[in-house]
């Protein structure tokens, strides 16, 4: 089981069904299983199944003098290890920068653990190693990248970028900026984002396998698009900074590479996304005798308000599914507690669910959880229902107070509603489930 406390949480048959559906989402985006299922070598031809396009990319490894790999973002270390085993002796070397340290040793491959969401000196050291590796690539070299969510924070090449990144992450996140706005600014502070990696690795052939954690799967936004041509400009970054009350003149903004030649030999592939998890959940729901419905694949908005429309919509015997990335707007007058947007979503629904509607409370369970297992805490998210409300009342917790102070992690710790998982899945944003008893 990827959900490590599934049995503990499954106190009712309704909860168990919801948790098994969540487990199916994790199984569908399990890093090792996904790569082994969709990447293979036949007679020295590397084949990559591009599932959403129903096609296969074929690379004749005999056409290349050397083969390198770079992993950037959450889960990229495990992804790199898995692919390295497939490539075997054909792999010349590589680097992965992740939030986790990969313990397995691979010849000529370096693993770095960086800090997230706020970068540190460790991130700079690792990023410089990536730049050093790809800078010397030649025309007959092949560079395969795993580009994963979280890469925008992990990749940081200079002290100047480090200081600016910390500031904009804190200020823009508090103000409720969406990920595309945040990453537009980060692209224009970086040497490697916004197509910078493609420029540094030119003229090598580049294949980037992207695990999208972005609504709509805009590959230029995932990890700030290190190998994707960037259509935004410094003017766009300035507008966003002004929008959120920051002075552009305080930032040394850079222009991203605009010469198309750097992208001529680049292939960016959507390798995995939230649709994979949704399809897995739908199949599991049907096996459990439920009727699944998709609410959204690009759900955005204030986290605490996001689940209530789904709860009001769900009918008996249905399970409503959604995927996306919500935001939390913090009250500047209150020092926020510990918690993430998934826990905020579940607690918001618990607080706002009409208390008079006892029948709905009794027959509905809902979850919101991070695909990579991190909801800004060691918890992946939370489960909510009448059991959780009754537990809170029994021990004297005011759910509204915990929501207002954004102390959602503590609330679900105390009410035993926190969801914990192994950290073995791709980061493809968040999933939401609302299930109603038939």
Report what the structure shows.
With 438 residues, this protein is α/β, with parallel strands linked by helices. It is built from 17 helices and 15 strands. It folds into two domains: 184 residues, glycerate kinase, domain 1, CATH 3.40.1480.10; 230 residues, 3-Layer(aba) Sandwich (Rossmann fold). The chain has a six-stranded parallel beta sheet with strand order 6-5-4-7-8-9, sandwiched between helices. The chain has a six-stranded mixed beta sheet with strand order 10-11-15-12-13-14, with helices on both faces. Helix 10 links the parallel strand 8 and strand 9. Helix 2 packs antiparallel against helix 11. The radius of gyration is 22 Å and the shape is globular. The protein starts with 5 loop residues before the first helix and ends with a strand. The model has no long low-confidence stretch (mean pLDDT 94).
| Global Rg | 22 Å
Strand order of the largest sheet: 6-5-4-7-8-9
Percent of residues in β-strands: 15-25%
Give me the CATH superfamily of the largest domain: Glycerate kinase, MOFRL-like N-terminal domain
Short description:
This protein has 438 residues and is of the alpha/beta class.
Essential attributes:
single chain, 438 residues, alpha/beta, 2 domains, six-stranded parallel sheet, six-stranded mixed sheet, globular
Protein topology:
Elements (H helix, E strand, L loop, with lengths): L5 H4 L3 H16 L2 H8 E4 L2 E6 L4 E6 L5 E7 L3 H12 L5 E6 L10 E5 L7 H15 L5 E8 L2 H4 L4 H16 L4 H9 L8 H6 L3 E7 L22 H10 L22 E7 L1 H14 L3 E9 L8 H6 L4 E7 L16 H12 L5 H6 E7 L10 E4 L1 H9 L4 H6 L3 H7 L3 E2 L10 E7 L2
Parallel strand pairs: 4-5, 4-7, 5-6, 7-8, 8-9, 10-11
Antiparallel strand pairs: 1-2, 2-3, 11-15, 12-13, 12-15, 13-14
Helix pairs in contact: 2-11, 3-4, 8-10
